[in-house]
Amino acid sequence: MLGPLSKKLLLKVSGGVDSKVLIAARSTSRCVSAAYATASDLNQDAEKLGKDSAFTVSYLVDSCGFTHEAATAAAAKFSLKSAEKPDKVLGLLRDYGFAGGDISRLLQHRPELIVTDPELTLRPKLDLLASLGPTQELLVKVVLRCPEILQKSREKSLVPSLEFLRSMLHTDENVLKAMSRCNRLLWFKLPVLLGPNVEFLREVGMPDNLISAFLKDRPSAFLASAARLRVLVDRARQMGFDPKRRGFVEAVSAFAGMSDKTWERKVEVFKKWGWSDDELVSAFKKFPLCMTSSEKKVDAVMDYLVNTMKLDPSFVARTSKLVTLSLEKRIIPRCSIIHWLLSKGVLLMQDVNLSNALTVSEDSFLRTFVTKYVETLPELLDLYNQYKNGATAGIFRSVQGHDISKPSIKMKKSVASKILVADM
């Protein structure tokens, strides 16, 4: 039956309808009907899309901890038709130790993981990472630091990369250490990227055990392109570093971590504090990682050691590791405790090597300067902990009448010099 629009197109000729006109009218009718059908389908699709989008937003907000804005942005990329599949994804993540906050953080970085097949795609990758033997807590940390690894191909990328790391580092424990020091380590196809670097380092004389240590301890530097690594190695060798020694690895790592402009800025900071060119070179050769401290940190440490502790800048240059230590958590608390012990007369200046006292492990410092005197000075441990926790020094003013609020200021330069019995 012809619709109203088609009838208007019919022309009556001699009491009848021209056959050509009738055919045209019928064709037009079909086109109009198709147009109506297409519009109807689009409306239905739009309505359906709206429902899916609304459900997606609601699910991400209610079940995954998304904000409404983040959920809306994610819903523009994919839609959820029901809760069945995403619920399985969330359940799988919980089985591997991901808490609610972990899941929210993971999915907000990579929301499309919620539509990934949990059994065919996610579980095999998580099982592969779990085969390294980490605790669930560490496994979660590894994934959260680089969520992209759950989107890498298991067979083409993750398996070859882990096999490469195991062949270089020998134990899964070492593999985990390298991964914890470089978040995106498994993001790369390591045999392709690092294979040439390994061969080059062997060519310049670095032994395999040191190459392994380089990869484990400084993986970010090891990830440099082959061309970039050649430049860094040449620079270290020109400064006299031996590829067969640990310092070579640290020098290359220091160079890799900054641009030439950043290097120049740091050199100027040290020179501002009185270091000569020779002292700079000597300090770097002795402890290359001294150049990895930020300019702000170098300024703060040098200010305390030189202006407050009254130490000679040359001493700090000879003990360059000091500029890498925490001022608040190590240098100030330890200097304060040493001065307090000196003021009590229980510690003699000739028994103190300040450079060692500041650089030894926490356990060693506690044995030498705290627990050793706790019986006669029971307040000492609490005093040390309060310094470490950043308590204002003024709270110690009344300790047996001794003002130790600024212990290093009371220590005159001559006294400080006597404490510096030996370098590191």
UniProtKB/TrEMBL annotation:
Stored Gene3D superfamilies: Transcription termination factor 3, mitochondrial
GO molecular function: nucleic acid binding
InterPro entries: MTERF (IPR003690), MTERF_sf (IPR038538)
Keywords linked to the UniProt accession: Transcription, Transcription regulation, Transcription termination, Transit peptide
UniProt entry tagged with the keyword Transcription: yes
Gene Ontology biological-process annotations: DNA-templated transcription termination
This protein's record includes keyword Transcription: yes
Superkingdom of origin: Eukaryota
Record family assignment: Belongs to the mTERF family.
This protein's name: Uncharacterized protein
